[in-house]
Amino acid sequence: MLWFLIIGIIAGWLAGNVIKGGGFGLIGDLIIGVVGSFIGGYLFKLLGISTYGTIGEILMATFGAIILLWVIRIF
Question: Measured between alpha carbons, how far is 7 from 46 in angstroms, rounded to an integer?
Fold first, then answer.
């Protein structure tokens, strides 16, 4: 559980830097990263892409978080 949260924080921070140009604070990064990891996992499974290891999990969660932030910016 703790590892999942750490990956969520890292992914949220990375996505915040890619999309907005900065992070959203610890709690904001955590929420965006955790929700993004679910989105990324769903999309990767849908596309048939497999990830392995910690780096793969972070990339998948970051991809999902970027998609989440992009959708939020549309609205």
Answer: 21
Share of the chain above pLDDT 70, in %: 96
Distances (CA, A) of 41 to 21, 22, 24, 75: 24, 24, 22, 23
Helices (H), the chain: 2-19, 25-47, 53-74
55's CB contacts (< 8 A; 6+ apart) are none
CA 24 to chain centre: 13
pTM: 0.88
Q: How many CB atoms lie within 10 A of CB 22?
A: 9
> Whole-angstrom Cα distance, residue 8 to residue 12?
6
Alpha-carbon gap, residue 56 to 18, rounded angstroms: 18
